[in-house]
Amino acid sequence: AATNGAAFTTSAVVALRDASNNPVSQAGVPVTASIATGAGGTLGGTLTVNTAANGTATFSNLTLTGTSGDYTLQFAAPGVTAAVSTTITLSAGTGSKLGITTQPPGTATNGVAFSQAPVIQLLDASNNPVPQSGVSVTVSVLTGSGTLSGTQVRQTNGAGAATFPGLVITGAVAEPHTLLFAAPGFVAVQSGVVNLVAGAAATVSANTPLNPSATVGTAVAPAPSVKVTDVGGIPVAGANVTFTASAGSTLSPASPAMVPTNASGDAGVISWTLSTTAGPNTLTASAVGAGSVVFTGTGTAGAATTIAANSTPPASATVGTSVTAPSVRVTDANNNPVSGVSVSFAITTGTGSTTPASPVVVVTDGSGVAAITTWTLGTTTGANTVTATAAGLAGSPVTFTVTGTAGAAAQLALTQQPSANATSGVAFGQQPIVQLQDANGNTVSQMNVAITVTISAGPGGTLGGTASLMTAADGSVTFTDLMITGPSGAYTLSFDSGVLTGVTAVVTIP
Predict the structure, then answer these.
(1) Cα gap 171→466, rounded to integer Å
(2) What DSSP designation does 238 have?
(3) Structure confidence by residue, pLDDT tens digits, 288-347
């Protein structure tokens, strides 16, 4: 990450390498930095640095100035392949001026709120949006004789934007106006021209709540209705109001529906049925010359009907390791996520563990998702399962299964001991069998690991027979002709591979 016009917080360091990627210690090689990808940026600072004796070049004061976004840098030197950096995301610098991202409307009805709310954006010197909240932005009339009303001071939000809804100019008819937006410490900005016009229909306002809600696929109550008035607030009869519903929702009469106002200036639809998808639906009521009102109807999910997997753990993983944690999604009959549903997670096979500890009940969030944080497999090979259960829902229980597989070979184990007692110079009656195991004692199938047996303690005898063998496909070695020749006493045999933890056995010659 970098800030527009500011030196990088971390210096770039470039190292010479040979064709096999080995470091090359060579001083005096000029390395030049430039922008590889990214539009609208300028790279500043010391752009050419000679390598030091160890073959590295450090760029300590690079800066990026320009349009916010993603960039990469190229570091090039004569006769060698250039290096390209990882992505550098350039963010805005210090705010210095105001810009208009949404202009006020080109035409405004006398005494009526603008149909388009101006949006002011804090900008840095390169015209990048500056995300700075709490800056007071003031709007006033710059040219024109009209009077401005409405909220004339707005605070910028977290994105550095200030929106001015509800601005009204009341004044002379057919006179152009411009607005000035100013903030302390920032260069002010002038709007485009707002032509003030008059009309019989001056205001349209909502008679019913602007933000109704209902279950998906049902009608809101009451049905949306608006009132149309002139500049003095008198109801206007016979003004045509057009109601337009967003995709998925339906109107009666059908959208777009043109409804004339009655003697009281009221016009409304018979019904507005929300779509079957949870979330916002919009209904815009517009009257020519008077602006528009937007109703936002929120469709809420119905009763939960189905539970299904929301994550996919691997089919298998090494014993004792963490895998993708189980997660499920609960939906209604229209596949909308349902929050607030209790889901029970429990380990049903294996000796693994979960966070929170199994069993646990997790409540679905706003996305209809319930999940546990971690799932660690048991230390024994074989199936590990976690089930997610929600009573009464189709698909319950959801079962997640991961097969635990052995880890890397870590130790040797004797699956068959040599004879406890043996005769000097005679092959053991029971020959030892050695098996590769992981750190958890699980059998490891690995060929061609050399296993060697030696006498590590005893009264001075010698070991005979084939004392070094390679493991078979199942990771085992079976010795066939081991013997000890020597005086009576207890002998300790050590079985080793050189890198794995060995194992010992005691054979006694009476």
Answers:
(1) 110
(2) T
(3) 989 999 999 999 999 999 999 999 999 999 999 999 999 999 999 999 999 999 999 999
Per the CB < 8 A criterion, the answer to whether 241 and 287 are in contact is yes
CA distance 157 to 104: 19
Q: Show the CA angle centred on residue 212, arms to residues 206 and 215, nearest 5°.
A: 150
- Which residues, at least 6 apart from 253, have a Cβ–Cβ distance to it below 8 Å? 259, 269, 270
Tell me what the mean pLDDT of segment 31-51 comes to: 95
Q: Are 145 and 110 in contact (CB under 8 A)?
A: no
Identify residue 57 by its one-letter amino acid code. A
Cα separations (Å) of 33 from 16, 51, 148, 425? 14, 13, 53, 77
Selection from 26, 27, 63 nearest residue 47 by Cα: 63
User: At CA 439, angle to CA 435 and CA 444, rounded to 5?
Assistant: 40
Burial of 258 (0-12, 13-18, 19+ CB in 10 A): exposed
How many angstroms from the chain centroid is the CA of residue 280?
Answer: 23
Is pLDDT above 70 for 174? no
Distance CA 444, CA 410 (A): 9
Band of pLDDT at residue 199, cut at 50, 70 and 90: low
Distance in angstroms (rounded) separating the CA atoms of residues 492 and 22: 48
The whole-angstrom separation of Cα 260 and Cα 256 is 13
- Give residue 172's identity as a one-letter amino acid code: A
Calpha distance 315→404 (Å, rounded): 9
Beta-carbon contacts of 111 under 8 Å, excluding residues fewer than 6 positions away, are 168, 170, 202, 203, 231, 232
CB 359 within 8 Å of CB 342:
no
